[in-house]
C-alpha cells in the first residue's frame, strides 16, 4: 500500500473537527485506500475504537440497498445508537446515493459524527451544497500517483530512465502495479478504467445518447493534449469525419469529461494584461496513461506527455495553473499558490540552439522577478541566463521539498 502522505497531511488538521472532509478525484486514483489510511491514523494515533468507525463503500454489493438519503440515514442511525459517543463516518463514492447531501447535513447537525466522503466528479460540491455546508467542509482534490510516489513502489530506482519512461507511458493509476508491466497488459487495464469512467461518470450521469460521438471527441482531445483546442476546432474535425455536431454540444461534452477528471481545462493568462482569456484554452489528461488507453502511445507524443506530467505535478503541489501569454510568445505554465508564482517551460531536449533560444526567450519576455524555470530531459545542462534556471524534469518531479528556484 502506498502511503499518500500529501493528502493525509491535508486532512489531518481537520480530524475530529465538525467539518465534512470531502475527497474528490478520478475513479481508481486511490480514494478508498486514502480512507483506509485515515482510519489507521484514527486507530493508532487518536485511540479511536474500531466499532465507532462506519465505512460505506458504494462499489460493494453489501451496500447496494443504500440508494438514497433516507436509506443512508436509516442505516447509519441504526448502527450509531450510543449516546454521547463520537462516530467516524466514511462514505466512498457518495455520488451513487441520491440526494446524499440531505443525510450529510443532518449528520452534521447531530454533532456526533466525524464525516469523510469521497466522490468521482468535480461537481460533487455543487453551488447549492457549498452554500448549505458553507464554512463546514474542506475539499481535498486527489490525483493518481506522482512520479515520486510511483518510484516508492517495489523500491524502483529513481534515476533509472526506464522507470521514468514507464511512468510517462503507463501513468500513475495505483492499480497498475498489480498487473504485469507489459504494454499490452497495462493498456487493457487502463482501457477498463477509461471505459468505466466514461460510462458511469459521463454517459449515465448526464444521460448521453450518442456515446460513439462522445468517445470520438474525448479521444480527439486526449490525442491533442497540450495543444490549443476549441469547441469550434472539434466541431470542424467531426465535420471532416462526416459527423455533424453543434459547438454547444461539444462544449457540453468537454464540460462533462472535465467533471469526470478524464481531462482538465487550462485557460490562458495574459501576463501583461493580468487577465484570464476566455478562448483558446488547452486540455491536459487527468492521467497520462489515458493516451495509451485510447489512441496508443507513440514516440512523437513525448513532448505532450512531459508537459502533461509537469502540469499534474503542479496541481498535486497545490498550484493554480494557467497557460501564459506575453505578446506573441507562449509560456507553458504560470503556476500560482498563495503568494508564490512560478513560470515554467517544458521541452524534451535543449541540445538544439534554436530550442534553447525559443524556450528562454519566452521567459525573458516576462518582466517581473518571480522564479522562471526551464525543464528538460537533459543531464548536465547548466545554461542559466538572466536569472532563468534550468532543471532536469526527473529531479524536479522527485523533489521531497519544493525549492525556491
Task: Tell me what the structure shows.
This protein has 405 residues and is α/β, with parallel strands linked by helices. The chain folds into two domains: 5-141, 3-Layer(aba) Sandwich (Rossmann fold), CATH 3.40.50.300; 147-397, no CATH class. Helix content is 40%, strand content 18%. It has 15 helices and 14 strands. The protein has helices at 5-11, 31-45, 69-79, 100-110, 127-132, 147-151, 161-170, 183-206, 211-223, 231-240, 247-259, 289-294, 302-316, 353-364, 393-397, and strands at 20-24, 53-57, 87-92, 113-119, 137-141, 263-266, 268-270, 275-276, 282-285, 320-326, 329-337, 340-346, 372-376, 389-392. It has a seven-stranded mixed sheet, with helices on both faces. A five-stranded parallel sheet has the order 2-3-4-1-5, with helices on both faces. A two-stranded antiparallel ribbon has the order 6-9. β11 (329-337) and β12 form a beta hairpin. The radius of gyration is 22 Å and the shape is globular. The protein starts with a helix and ends in an 8-residue tail after the last helix.
Could you outline the blueprint of secondary structure elements for this entry?
Blueprint: H1 5-11, E1 20-24, H2 31-45, E2 53-57, H3 69-79, E3 87-92, H4 100-110, E4 113-119, H5 127-132, E5 137-141, H6 147-151, H7 161-170, H8 183-206, H9 211-223, H10 231-240, H11 247-259, E6 263-266, E7 268-270, E8 275-276, E9 282-285, H12 289-294, H13 302-316, E10 320-326, E11 329-337, E12 340-346, H14 353-364, E13 372-376, E14 389-392, H15 393-397
Parallel strand pairs: 1-4, 1-5, 2-3, 3-4, 7-10, 12-13, 13-14
Antiparallel strand pairs: 6-9, 7-8, 10-11, 11-12
Helix pairs in contact: 3-4, 8-11, 10-11
Amino acid at each position: 500500500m502506498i502511503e499518500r502522505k500529501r493528502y493525509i497531511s491535508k486532512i489531518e488538521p481537520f480530524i475530529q473537527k465538525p467539518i465534512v472532509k470531502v475527497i474528490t478525484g478520478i475513479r481508481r486514483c486511490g480514494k478508498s485506500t486514502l480512507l483506509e489510511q485515515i482510519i489507521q491514523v484514527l486507530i493508532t494515533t487518536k485511540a479511536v475504537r474500531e466499532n465507532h468507525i462506519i465505512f460505506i463503500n458504494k462499489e460493494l454489493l453489501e451496500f447496494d440497498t443504500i440508494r438514497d438519503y433516507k436509506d443512508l440515514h436509516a442505516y447509519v442511525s441504526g448502527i450509531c445508537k450510543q449516546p454521547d459517543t463520537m462516530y467516524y463516518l466514511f462514505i466512498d463514492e457518495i455520488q451513487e446515493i441520491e440526494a446524499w447531501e440531505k443525510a450529510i447535513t443532518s449528520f452534521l447537525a447531530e454533532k456526533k459524527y466525524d464525516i469523510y466522503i469521497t466522490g468521482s466528479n468535480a461537481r460533487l460540491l455543487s453551488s447549492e451544497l457549498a452554500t448549505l455546508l458553507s464554512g463546514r467542509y474542506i475539499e481535498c482534490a486527489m490525483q493518481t500517483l506522482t512520479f515520486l510516489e510511483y518510484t516508492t513502489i517495489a523500491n524502483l530506482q529513481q534515476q533509472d530512465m526506464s522507470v521514468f519512461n514507464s511512468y510517462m507511458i503507463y501513468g500513475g493509476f495505483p492499480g497498475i502495479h498489480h498487473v504485469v508491466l507489459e504494454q499490452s497488459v497495462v493498456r487493457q487495464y487502463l482501457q477498463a478504467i477509461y471505459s468505466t469512467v466514461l460510462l458511469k461518470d459521463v454517459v449515465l450521469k448526464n444521460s448521453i445518447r450518442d456515446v460513439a460521438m462522445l468517445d470520438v471527441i474525448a479521444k480527439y482531445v486526449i490525442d491533442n493534449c497540450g495543444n490549443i483546442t476549441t469547441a469550434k476546432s472539434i466541431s470542424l474535425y467531426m465535420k471532416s469525419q462526416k459527423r455533424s455536431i453543434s459547438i454547444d454540444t461539444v462544449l457540453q461534452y468537454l464540460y462533462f469529461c472535465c467533471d469526470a477528471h478524464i481531462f482538465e481545462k487550462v485557460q490562458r493568462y495574459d501576463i501583461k494584461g493580468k487577465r484570464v482569456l476566455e478562448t483558446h484554452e488547452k486540455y491536459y489528461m487527468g492521467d497520462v496513461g489515458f493516451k495509451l488507453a485510447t489512441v496508443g502511445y507513440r514516440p512523437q507524443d513525448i513532448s505532450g506527455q512531459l508537459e502533461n506530467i509537469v502540469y499534474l505535478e503542479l496541481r498535486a503541489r497545490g498550484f493554480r495553473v494557467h497557460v501564459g501569454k506575453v505578446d506573441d510568445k507562449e509560456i507553458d505554465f504560470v503556476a500560482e499558490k498563495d503568494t508564490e508564482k512560478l513560470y515554467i517551460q517544458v521541452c524534451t531536449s535543449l541540445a538544439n540552439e534554436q530550442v534553447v533560444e525559443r524556450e528562454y526567450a519566452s521567459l525573458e519576455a516576462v518582466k517581473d522577478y518571480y522564479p522562471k524555470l526551464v525543464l528538460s530531459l537533459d543531464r548536465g545542462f547548466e545554461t542559466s541566463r538572466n536569472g532563468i534556471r534550468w532543471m532536469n524534469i526527473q529531479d524536479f518531479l522527485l523533489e521531497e521539498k519544493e525549492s525556491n528556484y
